[in-house]
Design a protein that fits this description.
The chain has 361 residues and is an alpha/beta fold. Helices cover 36% and strands 21% of the residues. The structure holds nicotinamide-adenine-dinucleotide. Nicotinamide-adenine-dinucleotide binds next to helix 4.
Length: 361
């Protein structure tokens, strides 16, 4: 058993501890957290994930992969990262020889998710990949296949599915306290006025545009609230500020689900919107905000209040995902779940390009 990851995978952590001599137990205990390498050190890694990795119980920040040499001393000093755990995009595959790293977390522009997921999987590391999973269904399939072939987990960074208030309303799709769902409305977006027109978020070929960036929150919510897959979609995309937003500034889409359930959804870079409202036979419930990093909270037609989660969303997400690796259980949001959204996103783009024609899924 040459490295810790293989060891954990083959024997299970508990078995490993029980067969080790006492002198090894101390070092095993020290290593009880899985090592995470962040791939891409932009906004989300810097401001949310790295701080959250200081709070996690089951994983810790051990490595970085970056194309910006000037970031290396800052990150190494701030987080005590060993020199041997620092990689760039050209030598990232060499992470296969590094037992400190169990997981690579892909936090890059969307168009790069496939490439670096496959490099991570082929290096024998579990992969966490940010949303949206990839540019199209074919890329998603290739990512899933690479992870399956290498017997590593693939998990998509849909943090809301780990968030306790959201999890409460996900449960209501089965317990139906307000009767069956009739329709829902969900919207996710923010006002953006970027100075840097080269930013990848503005360019469709890099995975930019409101639908890819924020629309997947609305789409994923419609799917997790109902627990169903949509059967058709009609969509419209437009930009009011065409000189800035070459990719969609705004996308509206209308999903039809089985049992006559309809979902009206919106995403935009032109306004701060952040709501989910579910209308049922005997009442309603809503979350507002529905996808912020903190403060997600709910109200219902009979006056119930769903109070915000007090913990750190990203820390909970990464701990949930680490436990799935340690216990060899299915992660909450596997690659297949990310791919289901991308299948609908492809249909949304197709409908919008064809005069909002309704597309059967
Ligand atoms: P960002 O632009 O701030 O960072 C992207 C990083 O990728 C930068 O460090 C940049 O240097 C690097 N990079 C490498 N190759 C690049 C290339 N060819 N072009 C541009 N950048 C390149 O972006 P971000 O906000 O950190 O988003 C990264 C990912 O995280 C995206 O997939 C995004 O959807 C996701 N994200 C998720 C959440 C969430 O709440 N789950 C929030 C924000 C971002």
């Amino acid at each position: 058993m040459s490295n810790r990851r293989t060891f954990i995978k083959k024997a299970g952590l508990l078995t490993a501890i029980s067969v080790l001599p006492a002198c090894n137990l101390i070092s095993t205990n020290k290593k009880k957290k899985l090592g995470v390498a962040l791939v891409g050190l932009g906004y989300y890694s810097r401001d949310l994930l790295a701080p959250a990795l200081q709070l996690t119980e089951h994983c810790e920040l051990k490595g970085i992969v970056t194309g910006s040499p000037e970031k290396i001393p800052v990150w190494r000093q701030k987080y005590g990262i060993d020199e041997k755990n620092v990689y760039n995009y050209e030598n990232m595959h060499q992470i296969s020889n590094n037992d400190d790293i169990d997981i690579v977390y892909i936090v890059l522009p969307n168009a790069l998710h496939k490439k670096y997921t496959i490099i991570g999987a082929n290096a024998g590391k579990h992969v966490w990949c940010e949303k949206p999973m990839a540019m199209n269904v074919l890329e998603c399939q290739q990512m899933i296949e690479a992870c399956a072939k290498n017997k590593v987990q693939l998990t998509i960074g849909y943090r809301m599915q780990h968030e306790p208030v959201t999890q409460q309303i996900i449960k209501w799709r089965n317990s139906k306290p307000y009767g069956s769902i009739k329709s829902l409305y969900t919207e996710a977006g923010f006002y953006s006025n970027p100075n840097d027109l080269t930013n990848w978020r503005l360019h469709k070929e890099l995975g930019g545009g409101a639908m890819f960036d924020m629309g997947v929150y609305a789409l994923n919510a419609a799917r997790y609230v109902t627990g169903m897959e949509p059967i058709s979609v009609s969509a419209r995309q437009y930009s009011d500020r065409k000189s800035i937003f070459i990719a969609d500034e705004t996308t509206t889409f209308d999903l039809q689900f089985p049992e006559g359930i309809s979902a009206s959804c919106k995403t935009t870079f032109g306004a701060n919107i952040n709501t989910l409202k579910v209308d049922c036979e005997k009442g309603w419930y809503q979350l507002s905000p529905m996808q912020s990093y903190t403060g997600v909270q709910g109200t219902t037609s009979d006056g119930k209040i769903l109070s915000p989660f007090k913990g750190n969303q990203q820390a909970k997400q990464m701990d949930d995902n680490s436990l799935a690796i340690m216990r060899k259980t299915k992660p909450l949001v596997p690659g297949e779940e990310g791919m289901k959204d991308i299948k609908v996103v492809e249909a949304i783009f197709k409908s919008a390009a064809n005069n909002s024609q309704r597309i059967t899924l």
